[in-house]
Design brief:
Bound molecules: adenosine-5'-triphosphate, magnesium ion
Number of strands of chain B: 10
Number of domains of chain A: 2
Distance between the termini of chain B: 35 Å
Number of helices of chain B: 9
CATH architecture of the largest domain in chain A: Orthogonal Bundle
Number of strands of chain A: 0
Shape of chain A: flat
Oligomer: heterodimer
Distance between the termini of chain A: 14 Å
Number of helices of chain A: 12
CATH superfamily of the domain at 1-75 and 194-256 in chain B: P-loop containing nucleotide triphosphate hydrolases
Structural class of chain A: mainly alpha
Largest sheet of chain B: 6 strands, mixed
CATH class of the domain at 1-75 and 194-256 in chain B: Alpha Beta
Strand content of chain B: 25-35%
Radius of gyration of chain A: 24 Å
Order of helices and strands of chain A: HHHHHHHHHHHH
Shape of chain B: globular
Strand order of the largest sheet of chain B: 6-7-8-3-9-10
CATH class of the largest domain in chain A: Mainly Alpha
Strand content of chain A: under 5%
Chain lengths: 271, 256
C-alpha cells in the first residue's frame, strides 16, 4: 500500500471525486428534510392544510418545548425506553439461549418444531387480555408483551443461523478431534455473528412495536400512552411530538447496534 | 520398512431411509512409514469414505483399521486431514488459522506454536501471518491449509482431492509445494484424486480402486526416484507409460 504523498494524480482525483460524491449525498439528505418541513409549514400558514388535523412543524416544536419544560417528555420517554430496552435484552438473551439449546439437541429441536411454528404465527397481541390478568396493568405487562413479540423470531433467526454453519468446516473440526462444545465456540458462534447482528436490528423494531402496543393496551404513562391520550382529546400536536421522540429514540438504538457491528464484524475483513 | 497403517478386510455400509449402500467391501492394503500413496478410482466409488474411516470419523461395518498397531476408534488426533477446499476460518488471521488444531487438541504451547509459525516462515507465508484468508490467493490459502494440517505434527496425512478446486496452473505449483513440504517434513501420506497424472507425479505407490463397492483392484509401485519433484516426473519419459497404463485400467474399471 502506498502512503498519502506517493499517490498518483489519478488516485488523488479519484479520492476527490469520491469525497465530493459523499458531500453531495449528505447535503441532499439534509435538503430533503428541510424542504419537506418548509413546505409543510408553508401549506399550514397559507391555510392549504388544516393545522388541527395535520399540525405543523412549528406547532410540534412548541409542543415539544412545553413537554420538555414540564419534564413530562423525559418521564414518558424514559418509561417507554426502559420497557423497550428491558424487553429487548430479555427476549434477545432468552431467544438466543433457546436457539443454542435447540442446535445442541437435534431431537429436542424436532420435538419442539411444530410448537415454534404455531407460536410464531400466533398474533401475540391476542394474548393481551391474558397478560393483563397475569401481570397487572403496568410496566411488567408491557415488558412481557415486548418479550412475547420478540422472542420467537429471535429463536428462529438464530437457530437458522446456527444450523447454516458450513458442514465442511464442522467436518474439518471433527477430523481434528473436536467435540460439540469446541465446534460451538470455535465455529458456530463466530460464524453466526453476522446473523446475530441482523437479528439485533430486527429486534429493535420489534421491541418498539411491543412496548407501544403494550402501552396502547394498558398503560398510564409512556410515549404510547401520550399518543393514545393525545388522540382521544384531539391534541394532535402531542401525538406528533411523541411520535417524533419515538423516531429519534429508535434511530439512536439502531445507531448503537450499527456501531457494535462495525466494531465486531467490520474489523475482521478489510475486503 | 515399518508399516504405519493397515486395513484388513474393511467394509462399510451406509444406511439411509431409502435403503442401504455398500460403499466399501473387503478392502485391504497397508502404508509404510514415509510412503506417499495415491488412491484413484471411478467417481463415487467410495474414496472419501475410506479416508473417513481411516480418520476414525466413520466406524467400519466390518474389518479392522490399525494405525501404529492400534485400532483407530475416534478421531484421536494422529491424523491431519486436508480437504478439497481450504476451509480457512475467515474471521481468523492466518496465524490463528494454523494454530487452530493446537487449540482443538489442547496442545497450544510455545513449542508447538513456534513449530507452526516456523512452517509459515519456511514456506514463504510469514509476511501474511497477520492477514485474513480473504486477502490471499487460492494457491496460498491451500498452502496455509497444509501448514494447518501439519501444525499438530500428525503421523499420517490424509488428502482428499486437495487441489481439485484450483485452476490448472495453480494446481501444478501448489502440488509441487505440497509435495516438497511433505517430503521435507517426512510425512506419510494417503492422497485421493481423480487425476491420474497427479497420482503418478506424486506417489510412490498408486492404488486403483474398483467401482462401488470400493475394493483394491490393483497396486502399482511407481519407480521414480523418491525425491524427484512432480514437475520433473512429468518431464520424465516413463511418466507417459505410467499414465497410459493407469488410464487404460481405470477406464476398464469405469466400464465394468
Ligand atoms: N452419508 C452417506 N449416506 C449414504 N450414502 C452415502 C453417504 N456418503 C456417501 N454415500 C454414498 O457412498 C458412495 C461413496 O461415496 P464417497 O463420497 O466415499 O465416494 P467418492 O469416491 O469420494 O466420490 P467422489 O469421487 O465424488 O469424491 C456414494 O455412492 C455415495 O452416494
Ligand atoms: Mg470424495
Amino acid at each position: 500500500m502506498k502512503t498519502k504523498d506517493e499517490f498518483s494524480r489519478e488516485h488523488l482525483l479519484y479520492l476527490k471525486r469520491r469525497r465530493n460524491d459523499k458531500i453531495f449525498v449528505n447535503c441532499a439528505r439534509v435538503a430533503l428534510i428541510i424542504i419537506f418541513l418548509a413546505l409543510w409549514e408553508l401549506f399550514y400558514r397559507l391555510g392549504a392544510i388544516d393545522g388541527f388535523i395535520f399540525s405543523a412543524p412549528s406547532k410540534i416544536f412548541k409542543s415539544l418545548v412545553n413537554l420538555t419544560k414540564t419534564g413530562e417528555l423525559f418521564k414518558h420517554a424514559g418509561i417507554t425506553l426502559f420497557e423497550t430496552v428491558a424487553g429487548f435484552a430479555i427476549a434477545t438473551s432468552i431467544g438466543t439461549l433457546v436457539a443454542l439449546a435447540l442446535w445442541w439437541n437435534d431431537r429436542l429441536r424436532r420435538i419442539l418444531d411444530p410448537y415454534v411454528v404455531v407460536l410464531n404465527s400466533l398474533p401475540k397481541i391476542a394474548l393481551g387480555p391474558v397478560i393483563i390478568i397475569w401481570f397487572g396493568s403496568g410496566t411488567k405487562s408491557i415488558v412481557v408483551m415486548t418479550i412475547l413479540i420478540t422472542v420467537i423470531v429471535t429463536t428462529i433467526t438464530m437457530l437458522s443461523g446456527f444450523t447454516a454453519t458450513d458442514k465442511n468446516k464442522i467436518f474439518l473440526l471433527k477430523s481434528l478431534g473436536a467435540k460439540k462444545p469446541q465446534i460451538l465456540t470455535k465455529l458456530v458462534i463466530p460464524s453466526s455473528l453476522p446473523t446475530f447482528i441482523s437479528m439485533l436490528k430486527i429486534n429493535i423494531g420489534l421491541s418498539w412495536i411491543g412496548s407501544i402496543m403494550g402501552e396502547y393496551l394498558v398503560s398510564r404513562a409512556g410515549l404510547g400512552y401520550l399518543i393514545v391520550y393525545g388522540g382521544q382529546v384531539f391534541k394532535l400536536d402531542l401525538v406528533y411530538a411523541a411520535t417524533l421522540t419515538l423516531c429519534l429514540l429508535a434511530t439512536g438504538m439502531y445507531a448503537l447496534v450499527s456501531l457494535i457491528e462495525k466494531i465486531t464484524v467490520g474489523k475482521k475483513q478489510t475486503s | 520398512m515399518k508399516e504405519i497403517l493397515t486395513l484388513d478386510k474393511v467394509g462399510l455400509i451406509y444406511h439411509s431411509p431409502v435403503g442401504e449402500t455398500q460403499a466399501v467391501k473387503n478392502m485391504s492394503f497397508s502404508v509404510a512409514e514415509g510412503e506417499f500413496v495415491a488412491m484413484i478410482g471411478p467417481s463415487g466409488c467410495g474414496k472419501s469414505t475410506v479416508l473417513n474411516m481411516i480418520a476414525g470419523l466413520i466406524k467400519p461395518s466390518e474389518g479392522k483399521i490399525k494405525l501404529n498397531g492400534e485400532e483407530v476408534s475416534s478421531a484421536a488426533g494422529k491424523f491431519g486431514y486436508m480437504l478439497q477446499r481450504d476451509e480457512l476460518f475467515p474471521w481468523r488471521t492466518i496465524r490463528k488459522n494454523v494454530t487452530l488444531p493446537l487449540e482443538i487438541k489442547r496442545i497450544k504451547n510455545k513449542e508447538n506454536e513456534d513449530y507452526a509459525f516456523g512452517l509459515l516462515k519456511k514456506y514463504g507465508l510469514k509476511e501474511f501471518a497477520d492477514h485474513y484468508p480473504d486477502q490471499l490467493s487460492g494457491g496460498m490459502r491451500q498452502r496455509v491449509a497444509l501448514i494447518r494440517t501439519l501444525a499438530a505434527k500428525p503421523d499420517l496425512l490424509l488428502l482428499d482431492e486437495p487441489f481439485s478446486a484450483l485452476d490448472y496452473q495453480t494446481r501444478l505449483s501448489v502440488c509441487e509445494d505440497v509435495f516438497r513440504i511433505i517430503r521435507e517434513e517426512n510425512k506419510t501420506s494417503v492422497l485421493v484424486t481423480h487425476d491420474i497424472s497427479e497420482a503418478v507425479s506424486v506417489a510412490d505407490r498408486v492404488i486403483l480402486l474398483s467401482s462401488r463397492p470400493a475394493a483394491v483392484r490393483k497396486e502399482y509401485t511407481v519407480d521414480f526416484d523418491k525425491d524427484l519433484s512432480p514437475l520433473k516426473r512429468r518431464e520424465d519419459p516413463r511418466f507417459r507409460d505410467w499414465f497410459e497404463l493407469l488410464w487404460r485400467d481405470l477406464n476398464d474399471e469405469n466400464e465394468r
